[in-house]
Automatic annotation (TrEMBL):
The keyword Oxidoreductase applies. Keywords: Monooxygenase, Oxidoreductase. GO terms for molecular function: monooxygenase activity. InterPro entries: ABM_dom, Dimeric_a/b-barrel, Jasmonate_Hydroxylase-like. The keyword Oxidoreductase applies. It comes from Streptomyces himalayensis subsp. himalayensis. This is Antibiotic biosynthesis monooxygenase.
Amino acid sequence: MTDSSATPSSATPSSATPSSATPDVAHGPVPQPAFEVPYYAVVFTSVRTEGDGGYGETAGRLEELVKDVPGFLGMDLARTPGGLGITVGYFRDEDAIKEWRSDMEHRAAQKRGREEWYESYTLHIAKVERSHGFRK
């Protein structure tokens, strides 16, 4: 069992780069470990439009870019066959979230997402005060 006071062994996403060939496959079979609390979870749920239109390439680029944000801890990604996507990004503090939110390449992708890639989306930001995990 992973305790909330444990330090993660890696601060990289537990996912592979999204592929336009497999858009409905959950990415990464292992969830992120519990991080030292407190930290923040940014939960982005979305329903995609039809087609790729460069989405896969942009998503892969953003997954690499966010790793350079000081305070970024990792992410979990999943997409159902029905099209519901869930991305959870983990950040040490609100300043790290603000830095990611204001990144110009990320802002351009957000704009394109509203115009082309998403039917709908919801964003939740939560402070995590307890975190537990289990792995065999």
